Design the sequence.
């Protein structure tokens, strides 16, 4: 939390995103979420709004219905999946938990397909909980492969970035021209990577951190930052479709 506060003081943050698993306290399904204790006391002090998405623990430890029903100056989750625009970026929030199940969620996939196809935004950022490729502890999970088969054809050639959590680490990858960033090291226990990143990939485990996005018409920049505000890896995506990575290192 101190890292968020310092960053926001030095470079004001317009808004935040959550990448699912918003609540880890077991048993919240059986009672009302204590919003003041678990959310407002921690995040309202930052002074900006978070556009939330749902993860698997929001189904097992809490309930999506409680999270969807709540609204405040620091919390926004209007629907299971939704879109909003900020400057040159259109964001598409997904609820990936139904998508990783064997039967999937055809309504959500049809919505994403149509929304991406209609978007006129310079940059299109899709975000949710489960990744479609990972060198982390969940990388071999069958549900990741199922999600990749369903989601990648809709992202390919249209989405600039797919931003996720689930694995408790920091990673930058690419698949079929889609930039992938995993930023799941900001809350619960951090974990080591399962595999050493291949050529063109980057990742670091056991390091608390988060992602920061900055956009102009000419460039979309994604920084993966540790709790001491060190930029571990920076991805710059250019207007012409090219990109470069700077400062990617392990610590």
Sequence:
């Amino acid at each position: 939390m101190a890292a968020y506060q310092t960053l926001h003081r030095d470079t004001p943050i317009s808004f935040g995103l959550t990448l699912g698993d918003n609540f880890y306290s077991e048993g919240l399904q059986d009672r009302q979420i204590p919003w003041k204790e678990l959310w407002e006391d921690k995040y309202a002090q930052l002074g900006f709004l978070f556009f939330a998405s749902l993860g698997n623990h929001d189904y097992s430890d809490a309930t999506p219905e409680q999270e969807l029903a709540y609204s405040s100056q620091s919390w926004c989750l209007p629907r299971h999946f939704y879109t909003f625009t900020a400057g040159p970026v259109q964001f598409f929030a997904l609820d990936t938990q139904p998508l990783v199940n064997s039967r999937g969620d055809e309504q959500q996939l049809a919505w994403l397909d149509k929304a991406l196809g209609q978007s006129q935004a310079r940059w299109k950022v899709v975000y949710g909980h489960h990744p479609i490729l990972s060198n982390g502890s969940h990388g071999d999970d069958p549900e990741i492969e199922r999600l990749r088969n369903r989601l990648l054809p809709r992202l390919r050639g249209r989405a600039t970035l797919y931003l996720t959590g689930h694995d408790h680490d920091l990673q930058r990858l690419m698949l079929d021209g889609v930039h992938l960033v995993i930023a799941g090291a900001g809350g619960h226990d951090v974990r080591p990577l399962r595999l050493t990143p291949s050529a063109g990939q980057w990742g670091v485990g056991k390091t608390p951190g988060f992602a920061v996005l900055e956009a102009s018409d000419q460039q979309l920049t994604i920084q993966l930052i540790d709790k001491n505000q060190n930029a571990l890896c920076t991805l710059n995506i250019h207007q012409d479709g090219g990109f470069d990575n700077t400062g990617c290192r392990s610590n």
